[in-house]
Amino acid sequence: MRWFRKPVGAIPNRFDPCTLRQLGNKTVRDKIKQLKNKQGLTQDKLARKSDFPYTTLTKIKTNVITKPSIQTVIKIAKGLEISLDDLMK
After folding, report:
1. In the chain, how long is the greatest CA-to-CA distance?
2. Rounded to an integer, what distance in angstroms lies between the CA atom of residue 33 and that of residue 26?
3. May I ask the CATH architecture of the domain 17-88?
4. Where are the domains of the chain?
5. Average model confidence (pLDDT) across the chain
6. Per residue in 38-79, pLDDT tens?
7. What is the mean pLDDT of residues 3-31?
8. Would you tell me how many other CB atoms lie within 10 Å of the CB of residue 88?
9. Any bridge partners for residue 15, and if so which?
10. 24 falls in which pLDDT band (50, 70, 90)?
11. 3-state SS string over the chain?
């Protein structure tokens, strides 16, 4: 069996729960909600700005999706007009 080694700097396809909890007691889901409310965005407006289905955002909010793909998180950050780093802080 060959072992696959990830290249240095490779971006994981999905965040693991530990990564999602990097914000201390806040999850990325909580941070999205906080920023969305601060900017006065509805869930529908954020979904449209992020260019993905409203149902995806709902599933993240309700914990149906606990490991959103990196592409989804990047789109949410763009919809919130912040960097991925700022979202993960």
Report:
1. 53
2. 11
3. Orthogonal Bundle (1.10)
4. 17-88
5. 78
6. 999 999 999 999 998 999 999 988 888 888 888 999 999 999
7. 55
8. 15
9. none
10. very low
11. CCCCCCCCCCCCCECCHHHHCCECCECHHHHHHHHHHHCCCCHHHHHHHHCCCHHHHHHHHCCCCCCCEHHHHHHHHHHCCCCHHHHHC
